Each structure stands twice: as structure tokens, then as C-alpha cells.
Amino acid sequence: MTKKRLQTELAGATISEFDGVRYLHLGTDWVQGAMRIHSPRKLELEYIQRMMAWLLWRPAGTLAAGHAVQLGLGAAAITRFTHQVLRWRTTVVEINPTVIAACRLWFHLPADDERLTVVNADAAAWVARPEHLQTADVLCVDLYDHEAAAPVLDDEAFYAACRGLLAPGGLMTVNLFGRESSFERSAERVAAAFGAQQVWQLAPTREGNTVLVAGRGVEWPDHDTLVARADAIQAASRLPARKWLRLVRPYAAG
């Protein structure tokens, strides 16, 4: 399938607003992302907040700078956080040009600069390019189409390429539907690519989203270190990091 043919089959981005929150859709009622209009840097959706749980694995001294890669732009919430709050170099890969355009117009996505690059490309092809090997400190993966039934990229080869993208000590978070039958298959593929001992999961949100965290040679810190990191994260970003400590556990197949 050519790129031109593929793009004609992508659903166009649509917008709705309710109670001070702007939502991104792809022509259906399924929410692809959200932004509180008067607090655009606040992470509005709970599962998006949990996509930032990788912060617990990173020593405080490593948060001053880094390279964050995001596969799937959504409503640019993660992008605004890594680029404007953490002030990290941020690269986003989004296949749908109407999503990029909508985020520029309606979701406070800034123009590219020395720290931000938004790429209109297929994520599977992009992560497999050899020049991207071991270039990311953090990778956030949230790839759903207009039907929002299962990730559009979800095989072991894709997750192996995601691991290859990470520098040693790097971390990936991926959004999966934890109450769907496909969740365990997806989690097993992540574990096969990263090693089961390098995968953790958070409890599902009320909507059923489960965030997996996978690392490339990382260690789960001791309790006192975790509490100190959670307190620092919460103070700096107002993310509910102390709550994450109650929700996270090592991945266990089955």
C-alpha cells in the first residue's frame, strides 16, 4: 500500500468541547485526546497521567535533560508535557496529517523548534530506521485508530524495534486496554521483546486503559527512593505520583 493510498484511508480529526475540556476524535465518539482549555499543560486524562509513570524509574539527576519520543500524537498532551514542562528534546511521529493540523490549531502544539520535531510518518517504519537506534531516553506509545479497538501496531517485531530505539536505561510506556481480551496478548509481546523482568504494569483506569512500563536495563528502586521520587514528581508537576506507587506491580504473564 502506498503512502498516498494509506493517507486517504485515515479518518479525519474532529473536535468537541464540554465543560471546559476540548476533545480530539477521529470521526467517532471515541476520545483520542483531551486538553483543559484554560490549563493546556495539565494532563487531563488519567491514563495520560499514568503514561508519565516512567518518571519513577529515572533518578532525579537525570531529569534535567533528555530525548523523549512519542508515537501517536493524540491531542499533544504528552508533547506539551515533555517539551514545555520537562523542557526535553521531543520527537513525535504521527501518521495522520489532520491530527497534526488539528493540534497546531486547537491543542497548543507549537511550531517545530530546536527541541521539538513533529514527523508525519508511519511509526513502524520510523522506529525501524537504523539511525534512530539508542537515541531515545523515553518512548511513549499510544497508537489507536478511529475504532479504538486495539493498538494498530502490536507485534513483537514492533516492540523489539521500540526497545532498539531506547538508550541503555531508557523506558517505554504503552497504552493498552487492560479489560479487553487483547491485553494479555499485547503484554506478552512487550515482555518477549524487553524481557519479562523489565516490564511493569499499572492497574487499569476506570475506562479500562492499562499502562505498561518497559525498560532497557533498568532497576525498580527501593521503597524509600520511590517515595522520595514520587514526592518530588508530585511537587514539580502535580502528577499523582504517590498514587502510582499503589498501582504499579511487576508484570506477570497470565
CATH superfamily: Vaccinia Virus protein VP39
Number of helices: 9
Q: Mean pLDDT, as a whole number?
A: 91
Q: How much beta, percentage-wise?
A: 15-25%
Structural write-up:
This protein is of the alpha/beta class. It has a single domain (45-250), classed as Vaccinia Virus protein VP39 (Rossmann fold). It contains nine helices and eleven strands. The strands form two sheets. It has an eight-stranded mixed beta sheet with strand order 6-5-4-7-8-10-9-11, with helices on both faces. It has a three-stranded antiparallel beta sheet with strand order 1-2-3, with helices on one face. Strand 7, helix 6 (156-165) and strand 8 (166-177) form a beta-alpha-beta unit. The longest helix has 15 residues, at 223-237.
Give a quick set of tags describing it:
eight-stranded mixed β-sheet, globular, 254 residues, three-stranded antiparallel β-sheet, 11 strands, alpha/beta
Offer a concise description of the structure.
This protein has 254 residues and is an alpha/beta fold.
Fold blueprint:
Elements: H1 3-8, E1 14-18, E2 21-25, E3 33-36, H2 46-50, E4 67-71, H3 77-85, E5 89-94, H4 97-106, E6 116-120, H5 123-127, E7 136-141, H6 156-165, E8 166-177, H7 182-194, E9 199-202, E10 209-215, H8 223-237, H9 241-247, E11 248-250
Parallel strand pairs: 4-5, 4-7, 5-6, 7-8
Antiparallel strand pairs: 1-2, 2-3, 8-10, 9-10, 9-11
Helix pairs in contact: 6-7, 8-9
